Amino acid sequence: MERQEIVQKIRQYWYVGVIVLLAGVILWGWQSQHRQQLQNKNQTAMTSSQVETPSAEKAAVSSSQEVKRITHGFVELKGAVAKPGIYQITANSRLFDVVTEAGGYLENADTTQMNGAQKLTDQDYIYIPQKGEAVQAASPTAGTTDTAVATATTGTAADSASDGSGTKVNLNQADASALQQLNGIGPKKAEQIVAYREEQGSFATIEDLQKVSGIGAKTFESLKDHITV
């Protein structure tokens, strides 16, 4: 009798077992789907991290390169170089960097007086002497380097030319003020000489002075005994 009752109850409540089984299947399916979503999310995060890392490195490199390009200041380079003038420098610029940018030393440059590895700072004034030329430790600016510096721009050449001592004005060293001490050279011509020197480079011979606009044969004849290069 008991067995029949059990069978009867099973027949009456069979759906309960089905419901429990279905619930288990649904729960298992949900857990499987949830685990798959977590795995996909982790893989996406790892891929994104791998992609972003090179970008961050590139940004850091680019930033470093940009720092190197930032202008630290300006220096003036004159004397026995191919292209005297004013040049931009960075915080790590050395003398040889600026000389290279200026086209290099001329053949008559006295490089024994130069320290190519010298570090430059803003407002430095560097003069490259010619062979056999003595350079005084004078500077037209407060930021002059310890390397050879110009003397003609301090007025020495002008004073020597005007006092009749026979010392000649160096066309490659004298500034506009010194050049005006020469007979026949006024402010305009002096500026033209300086501009020519900065654009074309140092004068190779005193005859090259005639290449400057406004300096003719007559003017040159009156100047040739008072100038040198």
From TrEMBL:
GO cellular component: type II protein secretion system complex
GO terms (BP aspect): DNA repair; protein secretion by the type II secretion system
One Pfam family this sequence matches: SLBB
TM annotation in the entry: 12-30
Gene Ontology molecular function: any one: DNA binding
Coiled-coil residues: none
Positions of the Helix-hairpin-helix DNA-binding motif class domain: 177-196, 207-226
Residue ranges, compositional bias (Polar residues): 41-53
Residues spanning the signal sequence: none
Keywords associated with the record: Membrane, Transmembrane, Transmembrane helix
Region (Disordered): 41-64
Identification of the protein by name: Helix-hairpin-helix DNA-binding motif class 1 domain-containing protein
Organism: Lactobacillus selangorensis
Phylogenetic classification of the source organism: Bacteria, Bacillati, Bacillota, Bacilli, Lactobacillales
